[in-house]
């Protein structure tokens, strides 16, 4: 029974975290009873009335625990913030992002800011589907947020320049500004402090917010910084040709003469960077005066695929009908296209395609 009693005491306090709702009238009436010559006299009363004012407290805090990883050329990358109405009255909130200047300290540590996305937009979570959806999360200000309520906000980049390299950083700040509530689906005017400007000019508005990263104490605003970090890669491509045999020397010191068989090898290697490579497709074209050879790898294969993925090597002889071979022809001008089928995730990973041709 003791435990239940404690819980009942705690629960109402939690609900009152933001204090008495603004615009609540507080009436207090005093009464006085007295006698004169031992005879009771009519009771006297006096009443004092005031209206609780609007105590403005707002916070906006980034929700990303680490810089948001982006690829060069990507668009629609998302920084996430949470805005909280810590005051005692419903408000709208304006949202403004800023691309910080080069050299701005990275809120997650080194390295510092050294680029901006081409642009960005700020959107409010609609509540329909968690996370950012371009078709759903379209509102650009927070409308009618109740006391003690929270709202997720996204800063969404347009294009990350294709020229950015691994570990490049772009820092952004987001500022939430307290606006007047009261009219749904209409963005209110900026809220100002005043002795009697709230609740139909009957109560005060008092800013009680703290200072965020890009605002000051008691200005009706709060801000937070977040960052994008580029996960780039350096991919090198090498192509070699090796004479396998010729009709005169056989396989002993063969020369590139008519009737000779030549093997082409094209190899892409992940040489540096923190990103990974997926969907790697190698395309080659049969040059003039050459004919691609069939059934040269393992008796039935036209292409040999050699890969190293996550440090693990594999070699596969692919028939031209294999699903990884999306293009195949033997005559000059034919495209030979091979999907690597595995990602390159570790430094030194590679994908190599080999095929053989006959010199006419
Ligand atoms: Ca959403
Ligand atoms: Ca509104
Ligand atoms: Ca502030």
Question: Any overview of this molecule?
Answer:
The protein has 360 residues and is mainly beta. It folds into two domains: 55-230, Immunoglobulin-like (Sandwich), CATH 2.60.40; 233-359, Immunoglobulin-like (Sandwich), CATH 2.60.40. 4% of the residues lie in helices and 45% in strands. It contains one helix and 25 strands. It has one helix spanning 2-15, and strands spanning 25-32, 35-36, 39-40, 44-51, 54-56, 58-62, 68-70, 78-85, 91-99, 120-124, 142-145, 150-157, 169-180, 194-198, 203-207, 221-230, 233-245, 261-273, 281-285, 290-292, 303-309, 312-318, 325-327, 335-339, 350-359. The strands form seven sheets. Strands 17, 18, 20, 21, 22 and 25 form a six-stranded antiparallel sheet that branches. A five-stranded mixed sheet has the order 7-16-13-9-11, with no helix packed on it. It has a four-stranded antiparallel sheet with strand order 6-8-12-10, with no helix packed on it. Strand 21 (303-309) and strand 22 (312-318) form a beta hairpin. The longest helix is centred in the first third of the chain and has 14 residues, at 2-15. The chain is rod-shaped. It starts with a helix and ends with a strand.
Name of the CATH first level of the largest domain: Mainly Beta
Q: Count the E strands.
A: 25
CATH fold type of the largest domain: Immunoglobulin-like
Question: Cofactors and ligands present?
Answer: calcium ion
Query: Per DSSP, what share of the residues sits in E-state strands of 2 or more residues?
Result: over 45%
Distance between the termini: 98 Å
Percentage of residues assigned to helices: under 10%
CATH second-level architecture of the largest domain: Sandwich
Number of H/I helices: 1
Low-pLDDT runs? 1-16
The domain count comes to 2
Largest beta-sheet characterization: 6 strands, antiparallel
Rg for CA atoms? 35 Å
Helix and strand element order: HEEEEEEEEEEEEEEEEEEEEEEEEE
Write the CATH homologous superfamily of the largest domain. Immunoglobulins
Structural shape: rod-shaped
């Amino acid at each position: 029974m003791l435990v239940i009693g404690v819980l009942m005491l705690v629960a109402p306090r939690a609900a009152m975290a933001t204090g008495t709702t603004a615009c609540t009238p507080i009436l207090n009436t005093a009464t006085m009873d007295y006698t004169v010559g031992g005879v009771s006299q009519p009771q006297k009363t006096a009443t004092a009335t005031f209206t609780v004012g609007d105590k403005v407290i707002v916070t906006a805090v980034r929700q990303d625990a680490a810089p948001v990883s982006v690829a060069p050329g990507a668009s629609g990358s998302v920084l996430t913030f949470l805005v909280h109405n810590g005051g005692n009255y419903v408000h709208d909130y304006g949202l403004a992002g800023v691309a910080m200047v080069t050299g701005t300290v990275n809120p997650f540590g080194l390295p510092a800011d050294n680029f901006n996305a081409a642009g960005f937009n700020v959107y409010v979570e609609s509540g329909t589907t968690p996370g950012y959806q371009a078709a759903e999360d379209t509102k650009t200000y927070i409308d009618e947020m109740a006391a003690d309520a929270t709202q997720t906000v996204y800063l969404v980049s347009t294009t990350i320049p294709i020229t950015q390299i691994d570990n490049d950083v772009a820092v952004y700040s987001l500022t939430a500004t307290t606006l007047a509530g009261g009219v749904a689906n209409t963005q209110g005017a900026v809220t100002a402090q005043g002795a009697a400007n709230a609740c139909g000019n009957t109560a005060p508005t008092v800013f009680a917010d703290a200072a965020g990263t890009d605002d000051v104490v008691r200005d009706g605003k709060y801000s937070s910084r977040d960052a994008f970090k580029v996960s780039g890669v350096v991919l090198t491509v090498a192509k070699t040709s090796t004479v396998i045999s010729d009709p005169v020397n056989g396989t002993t010191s063969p020369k590139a003469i008519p009737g000779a068989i030549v093997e082409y090898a094209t190899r892409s290697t992940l040489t540096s960077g923190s990103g990974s490579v997926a969907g790697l497709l190698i395309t080659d074209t049969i040059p003039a005066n050459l004919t691609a050879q069939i059934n040269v790898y393992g008796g039935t294969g036209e292409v040999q695929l050699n890969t190293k993925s996550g440090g693990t090597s594999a070699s596969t002889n692919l028939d031209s009908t294999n699903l990884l071979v999306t293009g195949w022809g033997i005559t000059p001008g034919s495209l030979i296209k091979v999907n690597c089928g595995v990602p390159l995730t570790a430094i030194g990973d590679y994908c190599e395609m080999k095929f053989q041709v006959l010199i006419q």
